[in-house]
Amino acid sequence: MANNKVIGKGLFLWLSTFSLIGLMVMVTGLWYFISPRLHEFNQALPFVLLSALRIFFLILVIGTILVFLTSVFEKNFLIANFAVKLFIRFMYPICIFVGRIFRIRKEKIGESFVSVNDSLIKALSPKYNASDVLILLPHCLQDTSCPIRITVNPDNCKRCGKCNIGDISKLAEEFGVDIAIATGGTLARRIVLKKKPKLIIAVACYRDLVSGIQDAFPIKTFGILNIRPQGPCINTKVDVQTIREALNKIIMKSDK
Q1: How far apart are CA 62 and CA 77, in angstroms?
Q2: Which terminus of the chain has fewer Cβ atoms in its 10 Å neighbourhood, N or C?
Q3: Which pLDDT tens digit goes with each residue over 119-147?
């Protein structure tokens, strides 16, 4: 049985901070070794390069502190979009590399990354119209004994209660948001291109959520990890209350 204990955002934040410090140490060390050579080209070149590095490091440190505070307190600390982009697009593979050195499982880092992403959305995102929000579900949420085909049209669901699809459909109706079910990443991307949401609430395993968050960016994707009582990709579950709480946070009150 899969371990469904959710990893918090602390792991990814600390790995990111450690990775950036390591990056600064390596770049500074590289400058130290090549600076004598730079003197041969121009006397001022080492000073100019060192000054540029100091400015870059200062921006990096300030950006990291702001991301850290924004994620921890889920308040907007004047964080810039480039810092969010940096974390979503570039920090994940760096943290995976560093995590491998310390033998931290990729799954734990991925789950923590999703938590950080969600905290940034809570802190930075404005409220959305219900028509701009899409709930995107994996096909593995459907009970394997169900003969109904719901991937083409989720409204085909009979809401028998064997899986969470029926409860989520009721929730989507209550909030007036669109809902779609994908059998894989390719279909999920096609659905997003077709429906053009401004915000996605996606349910999936950590691997699909990480790739989905990165692929969909700059469309914001609020990730909710599925529960796997029978292992990956079969009869998975989701905490419907978590979806409700996400909808309450991101949808304009007048649209509910």
Answers
A1: 11
A2: N
A3: 988 888 778 999 999 999 999 999 999 99
